[in-house]
């Protein structure tokens, strides 16, 4: 596997690696891991010192975000952790919420879409309208993700994400800290980590993770919009796989005004 963050490479093994779990597939110690881990710990400490109660971890409950939650617990940083329940998540994803509570004593705040907006969308567009056009898929993301995100971040001055440069060419230049376009700071403490780093940490710290990662799903979103990837496909190939766009995003990590987020805009 290439170390270049801009390369679209498969995250499945090409050889005969043990395939019983994502840990067996991906976890390995790599050069510089301890330095990257120390850097991430320092970034999280500095963020809490600077932003205090204004800081929040926005967790997708994916592997990267589970690493960050584990580090917050390890460092005993009282940072709020929140997630979006779109109403279309896999059961395996939602199962992590009680696991986080049991293992770390952290209560994950759950933000859901406005029920009336979802009902109206399904009634007028169809339950699986996301397959019909890019515009309808983005409209669905706006209702189920972006609007709840605006409420999640209300009153916060900074938020933590699990973005990494290696995830896609579109994220190859992800900085450790950046303005989010809404007066807040977005922090990406795992920006320099590799996929192997993420799973090595999960393995060595017994971090709970989504069971779907064991089924060749490195990037997991809503159930209708996620499939397993195959050898030769890039990290995010299983997300919105029916679309032709190269940079497939739901809009959560695009800089927007507060009004655009509240309205569910996805452009």
UniProtKB/TrEMBL annotation:
Binds 1 [4Fe-4S] cluster per subunit. Pathway: Sulfur metabolism; hydrogen sulfide biosynthesis; sulfite from sulfate. The active site is at residue 250. It catalyses: [thioredoxin]-disulfide + sulfite + AMP + 2 H(+) = adenosine 5'-phosphosulfate + [thioredoxin]-dithiol. Its cofactor is [4Fe-4S] cluster. CDD domains: PAPS_reductase. Pfam families: PAPS_reduct. GO terms for molecular function: phosphoadenylyl-sulfate reductase (thioredoxin) activity. [4Fe-4S] cluster binds at residues 140-141, 222, 225. It comes from the Bacteria. It is an enzyme of class 1 (oxidoreductase). Coiled coil: none annotated. Its EC number is 1.8.4.10. Keywords: Cytoplasm, Iron, Iron-sulfur, Metal-binding, Oxidoreductase. Residues 56-228 form the Phosphoadenosine phosphosulphate reductase domain. It is found in: Cytoplasm. Belongs to the PAPS reductase family. CysH subfamily. Catalyzes the formation of sulfite from adenosine 5'-phosphosulfate (APS) using thioredoxin as an electron donor. This is Adenosine 5'-phosphosulfate reductase.
């Amino acid at each position: 596997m290439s170390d270049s963050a801009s390369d679209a490479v498969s995250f499945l093994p090409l050889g005969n690696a043990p395939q019983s779990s994502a840990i067996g597939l991906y976890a390995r110690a790599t050069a510089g891991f301890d330095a990257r881990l120390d850097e991430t710990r320092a970034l999280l400490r500095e963020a809490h010192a600077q932003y205090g109660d204004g800081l929040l971890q926005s967790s997708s409950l994916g592997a990267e975000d589970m690493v960050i939650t584990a580090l917050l617990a390890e460092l005993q940083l009282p940072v709020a952790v929140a997630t979006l329940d779109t109403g279309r998540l896999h059961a395996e994803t939602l199962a992590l919420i009680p696991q986080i509570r049991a293992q770390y004593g952290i209560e994950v705040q759950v933000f859901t879409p406005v029920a009336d907006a979802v009902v109206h969308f399904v009634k007028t567009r169809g339950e699986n309208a996301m397959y019909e056009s890019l515009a309808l898929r983005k409209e669905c993301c706006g209702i189920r993700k972006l609007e709840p995100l605006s409420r999640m971040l209300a009153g916060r001055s900074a938020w933590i994400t699990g973005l990494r440069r290696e995830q896609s060419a579109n994220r190859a230049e992800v900085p450790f800290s950046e303005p989010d376009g809404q007066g807040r700071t977005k922090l990406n403490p795992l920006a320099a980590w590799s996929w192997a780093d993420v799973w090595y940490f999960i393995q060595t710290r017994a971090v709970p993770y989504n069971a779907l990662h064991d089924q060749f799903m490195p990037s997991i979103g809503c159930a209708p919009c996620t499939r397993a990837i195959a050898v030769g496909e890039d990290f995010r190939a299983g997300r919105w796989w029916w679309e032709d766009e190269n940079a497939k995003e739901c809009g959560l990590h695009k800089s927007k005004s507060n009004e655009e987020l509240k309205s569910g805009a996805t452009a």
